[in-house]
Amino acid sequence: MHDSVLECVTLRRSLGAKYLTTPAPSKEDYAEALTWAIAAPDHCHLSPARFVVIEERQKFADFFEAGALADGADQEGAQRARSKALKAPAMVAVVAKIDEHNERVPTYEQWMTVGAATSNFLAALELKGFAGKIVSGSSTHYRDAVDALCKKGEVIACWIMLGTAKPDAPGAEVRSIYDELLTYFS
To answer: How far apart are CA 132 and CA 56, in angstroms?
Structure first.
């Protein structure tokens, strides 16, 4: 656990499944993380992001395997895709609904809200002692996964792989502050 929110955010690092173990977040942990997620900046309160905890991991492993095969993977590649749905102790889908016809809120701003909500969701869980990594790629387009999770007009933005950091997990890298990342116009 971290001493402060600022310390948590500045020391956060992405940890892949090989560095994660149980316990995974509880339903209460996810509910609290959602309160953080919905606090993200959201012009016109569109709520373009929602979070789906994947409890039926074997079913999603089937979806990943079938999706990889449909994309032309060989059996070995399909098994690799299948394993990605099972490696981490927990998996959450970030589902986005972007209104391309909204005249007040451009799509890039809606995507920024999805990213901010996802970051807040993950930060809340990290403050509670969990760790994780955001992943995307072809699995966000696998037909069975999309059909299972998405309503009309929605897409899977990414997956969040979660658990508790193993003792041998790498520590946070010291990030340098570069002058060109923060400037002042005067």
So the answer is: 19
The closest of 15, 138, 143 to 77, measured between CA atoms, is 138
Q: How far is CA 91 from the centre of its chain?
A: 8
pLDDT digits (tens, 9 = 90+) for 12-59: 789 999 999 999 999 999 999 999 999 999 999 999 999 999 999 999
Residue 45: count of CB within 10 angstroms of its CB: 8
Amino acid at 71: D
pTM over 0.90: yes
Residue 156's DSSP bridge partners are 95
Q: Give tens-digit pLDDT for 144-186.
A: 999 999 999 999 999 999 999 999 888 877 667 777 788 889 9
Number of Cβ atoms within 10 Å of the Cβ of 136: 12
Q: Cα–Cα distances in Å, from 54 out to 21, 46, 145, 148?
A: 17, 24, 11, 11
CA-derived radius of gyration, the chain: 18
Under 8 Å CB-to-CB from 77, ≥6 apart: which residues?
A: 68
